[in-house]
Write a structure and sequence with these properties.
The chain is an alpha/beta fold. The chain is built from 14 helices and 25 strands. Bound molecules: nicotinamide-adenine-dinucleotide (NAD). Keywords: Oxidoreductase.
Length: about 475
Amino acid sequence: MSELTTSQHFIGGARVEPASGEYFESTNPATRRVLYRAARGGAADIDRAVTAARGAYEDARWRDLSQTRRGRLLRRLGDLIAENAEELARMETEDNGKLLREMRGQLATLPEYYHYYAGLADKIHGDVVPTSDRRVLNYTAREPLGVVGAITPWNSPLTLTSSKLAPALCAGNTVVIKPSEHTSASVLRLAELALEAGFPPGAVNVVTGFGGEAGQALVDHRALAKISFTGSTATGSRIAAATAGRFVGSTLELGGKSPNIVFEDADIANAAMGVVAGIFAAAGQTCIAGSRVFAHRSVYDDLLERVSDRARSIRIGDPLDEKTELGPLAFEGQRDKVAAYVDIGRGEGARVLTGGRSTDGGLGGFFYEPTILVDVDNSMRVVREEIFGPVLAVMPFDTEEEAVRLANDTEYGLAAGVWTQNLARAHRMAARLDAGTVWVNTYRAMSPMSPRQGFKSSGAGVEHGTETIKEYTRLKSVWINT
Ligand code: NAD
């Protein structure tokens, strides 16, 4: 135990001991090996971090820096991430069990987040407004908000943190990040890289710890100007309620139960590959997981056979091994949750076509087989609730009308996939699906340049693109008597 690394908070540009003196362990889910001990943050640590962030914001080191200079720092941070990509990719693979080759892919695009907002930094401006009164000059200014709180989950710590950090900094805010208690390491390293890039101490702070402690304290902090949250709908709803009365703005990226709809005119081989990648990538632990499939009755058997054949051949094992196709769930509780859901499905009358068992992956870890459920319908919990694991529910439909109705019959509205060769149908479906992102003949494409929003219980506010800058700025109207 004594040789374990202890990782402190990162506040005001330095590593800081937790006020409580307490640490908690972070475990590699593939092997159950304890990786490091992270600082257990609480209200005192959050207060210290928010004060550091407020100081960096106010004392002209950051807020009044020229926008050109802000852009240069963001560019430099993107470059540093590229230079340290392999280290960061391995950190996340060890912490949450995602495949190293998938993490290398994510790290290859991560610098784009910073480079994109670097290019936007000097393009944030207000307007001169032509009011009817010619004796006054009216103009608007787009100002930063102050201290932004960022709370993120464990499934893609660096990417999901960067979706918040890059635009928040670009707009002139400072940030306090509370990463998931399951994955603290890579986000702490990111904050160190920000300091190395030249961001002033206090511009980027990280307080590690649990949601009900550090997370809650950040949400409740009186000096917080905004909260940007990615995580479950249940937590998002609690955060929205806690901040609403104080009129603190929130951007919420929440859960999903996304449909993949396969029409009779689809390229079935392509659709089958998309369905498999949509649900089994990252062992199903992506918010956009295509966890429900609706297949036209005429191609249902063919699709199911292709998808289940592929699912059975998926190679489970060490996420560091290039040949592995499915890693573990991120921690024991998540693996148990997935197993419990499959049992619930069995109890509801679902048939397990393939998978349906926990395994230790030969490494002693928290793995679960790629699982396909059939004989299911929209009334069942396994079809309605987010499982966040490698579990797919497949159902037939007869008409386009019915496909739309079944796909939209969910509290979620994050994403949807449509597989068809008919262009007019593709446009019709894109217009009628209640989802913030619609993919046609592809799945999981994403870019920091493209705005995304969760509909219904999947979120509030926009991330990515130029659109998100509005979420990190406020608009001031200035009138001058001429
Ligand atoms: P979670 O809601 O349990 O936790 C997310 C974060 O919130 C963690 O850092 C946690 O410590 C913190 N937290 C928990 N309770 C809190 C509280 N009361 N106050 C403040 N912070 C609190 O979610 P998770 O299990 O870590 O992540 C999985 C969920 O995230 C899934 O529902 C998934 O769909 C969602 N997700 C959404 C997106 C998206 O872009 N829409 C992306 C990835 C993941």
